[in-house]
Design a protein that fits this description.
The complex is a heterodimer of chains A (340) and B (256). With 340 residues, chain A is α/β, with parallel strands linked by helices. Chain A has 14 helices and 13 strands. Chain A folds into two domains: 218 residues, 3-Layer(aba) Sandwich (D-Maltodextrin-Binding Protein, domain 2); 93 residues, 3-Layer(aba) Sandwich (D-Maltodextrin-Binding Protein, domain 2), CATH 3.40.190.10. In chain A, strand 8, helix 5 and strand 9 form a beta-alpha-beta unit. Chain B has one domain: MetI-like fold. In chain B, 81% of the residues lie in helices and 0% in strands. Classes of the chains: A alpha/beta (340), B mainly alpha (256). At the A-B interface, helix 3, helix 4 and strand 9 of A face helix 10 of B.
């Protein structure tokens, strides 16, 4: 684990003795007592991990008899690689990395939930003179290759009739490097996501050119170019079904808390993301936080979310990012969700 | 002698073939998941696919240009400086602490500063290769110069040769074989900086190819990039040896 690059290691093992701490009722009964006392979760400051941070701070996982060991990764691909090699038990991930891992033939994980839908926290920030996507012709646009923002860029350029290889100079860049490059006029636009998205939007001379609502599949399925997934390592889940269920109960309780108490959640998360509290609250309220009850509709029947993922796989094949589109439903397993 | 060389070459070829065959058998037999180690045949398939897309040569050339330019600048700066340091104890005392500080720094550690100083242009990538190969090259050249037998230098001086004449007639011819051997080693090491050089704002190059393959779990692409780095280094090494034979034929004859 120590070898993982760009790791922000935040160790937060929550002692079982803290179960039932002030203000948090203990809900784990003897029947559902987890097989393990802690899980290793791979996350980052991206929004799909916010419920885990809130759950740890508010004691929702503790109430399930579970400690969460947080391991930070810069990119979803690193997280999924760690999951596949057995270093993580659970993770939140962008669907592109999950689809790529499926396409590579890995059966190492289950997709257990679609936690959120967002459209206004990822997009393209451009210099004020750039009014439309067509104005990007001949300009330098920074984007992290193999990210959801990369898919967004390829899609909106395609919609505008621009060739991503010839018409726009795409610069492969980490999100953290984009603000400095934009300030120095080395790039004229950047495709980025929260919290850098909001920080760049607030920079002098910057404007939001578009967000995920312009993504072609958003118009049809109402999800962005790299919708989030909650995944669990297959071997771990098969051996520890109660632990997996306990984690998901804690996760969805935290998501519910964020939905109903955005002010308090924003206070907690602002320290985590570094965003101003108001921006943080907007990020929470602009995001749709799905409940366990939504998962059947999204993932199984009629399963519009999974249909959308398949189309995303086709899109990646068309743009030569992966060699074949996987049958995503083979990885979906909703049996660990609360209430099942 | 030539017959022996051919036999040794044949042994090397057979050993390589045996390694690849075992690798192919192990991966085809399903003992190792392709995600972790794909078969060599899959790596070859990927190579053919990328060659047909006209991508592969672009990646090789982009990396070769970055390494060769960065290394050439480092060599041009390192050779005279190394000779000076090797010839003057005073200069060595003055510069050695600085070199000792720079030498252990990994090329990757220069990325933040290079971005601030040079932005995201190609010069930033050259600078990463330069910083990864400059200090070790200086040390190679300095040691090569210091290893000249002082007896030769004293004899030349006693015969009335000026300092410049000693440098051109004694030090350079004596140190050149070691300097070239050192630079050959350093050129190989310069290739190890290519991943760092292509980590930021690159969309071509073998380092980019490897990192992009990693993002999409295309392990065969990762291995292809690694194999191409090795193959390119071997080609450049052979070219360097050819140049070396023409520059210092006496050394080659002596080796034989």
């Amino acid at each position: 684990m120590a070898k993982r690059s760009w790791v922000l290691l935040v160790l937060m093992v929550v002692a079982l003795g803290a179960v039932g701490q002030a203000g948090v009722p203990a809900t784990a009964d003897a029947q559902e007592k987890p097989e393990k006392i802690s899980v290793i979760y791979g996350g980052s400051t991206w929004l799909s991990h916010w419920p885990v941070e809130v759950g740890m701070r508010k004691g929702f996982f503790q109430a399930e008899g579970l400690g969460v060991l947080w391991q930070g990764f810069y990119a979803s691909s690193d997280r999924m690689g760690a999951l596949a090699s057995g270093d993580l038990d659970l993770a939140g991930t962008g669907s592109i990395s999950a689809i790529a891992l499926m396409a590579a033939g890995s059966n190492a994980f289950y997709v257990v939930a679609a936690p959120d839908s967002y459209a206004t926290v990822e997009g393209i920030i451009a210099q004020r003179g750039i009014q439309t996507i067509k104005d990007l012709k001949g300009k330098k646009l920074a984007v992290t290759f193999a990210s959801s923002a990369h898919v967004l860029v390829l899609d909106v350029l395609e919609q505008a009739g621009l060739d991503s290889r010839k018409d726009v100079d795409l610069i492969n860049m980490k999100v953290s490097d984009m603000p400095a490059a934009f300030r120095n006029n080395e790039i004229q636009a950047a495709a980025t996501w929260t919290p850098t998205f909001e920080k760049m939007r607030a920079m002098p001379g910057a404007k939001e050119l578009l967000n995920d609502k312009e993504f072609s599949l958003f118009k049809k399925y109402e999800f962005g170019p790299g919708p989030d997934l909650l995944v669990v390592r297959r071997e771990f889940a098969d051996k520890n079904p109660k632990t997996t269920r306990a984690f998901l109960r804690g996760y969805f309780k935290a998501a519910e808390f964020m939905r109903t108490n955005p002010d308090e959640a924003a206070q907690i998360l602002a320290k985590f993301t570094g965003l101003p509290v108001e921006e943080q609250k907007k990020g929470i309220t602009d995001t749709t936080w799905y409940a366990p009850a939504d998962q059947q509709r999204l993932l199984v029947s009629p399963g519009g979310f999974v249909q959308g993922l398949k189309q995303l796989g086709d899109f990646l094949v068309r743009h030569k990012q992966i060699s074949s589109a996987p049958a995503v439903d083979r990885w979906v397993n909703v049996n660990f969700l609360p209430g099942r | 002698m030539r017959f022996l060389e051919r036999r040794l070459g044949f042994v090397g070829f057979c050993s390589f073939l045996a390694f690849v065959s075992v690798w192919e058998a192990v991966t085809r037999g399903g003992w190792i998941e392709p995600l972790f180690l794909p078969a060599p045949s899959r790596v070859l398939q990927r190579a053919v696919l990328m060659y047909q897309d006209q991508n592969l040569v672009v990646h090789v050339l982009a990396s070769a240009r970055r390494v060769l330019v960065g290394f050439a600048i480092a060599a041009v700066a390192a050779v005279p400086l190394g000779i000076l340091l090797g010839s003057s104890r005073l200069l060595r005392a003055a510069v050695d602490p600085l070199l000792s500080i720079i030498r252990p720094l990994p090329s990757m550690s220069w990325i933040p500063l290079s971005l601030l100083w040079l932005g995201i242009a190609e010069s930033q990538k050259y600078s990463i290769v330069f910083m990864g190969s400059f200090a070790p090259s200086v040390l190679y050249v300095m040691e090569a110069t210091r290893n000249i037998d002082p007896l030769f230098v004293r004899a030349a001086r006693n015969l009335g040769a000026s300092r410049t004449a000693v440098l051109y007639e004694v030090v350079l011819p004596g140190a050149l074989p070691s300097i070239l051997a050192g630079l050959k080693v350093m050129l190989g090491i310069a290739w190890t900086t290519v991943i760092s050089a292509e980590l930021v704002a690159a969309k071509t190059g073998l380092g980019f190819l490897i990192m992009n393959g990693k993002e999409y779990f295309l392990t065969e692409q990762v291995l292809l990039g690694m194999a191409l780095i090795s193959a390119t280094v071997v080609c450049i090494d052979r070219t360097f040896t050819w140049v070396e034979r023409r520059l210092i034929p006496w050394r080659v004859e002596a080796t034989r």
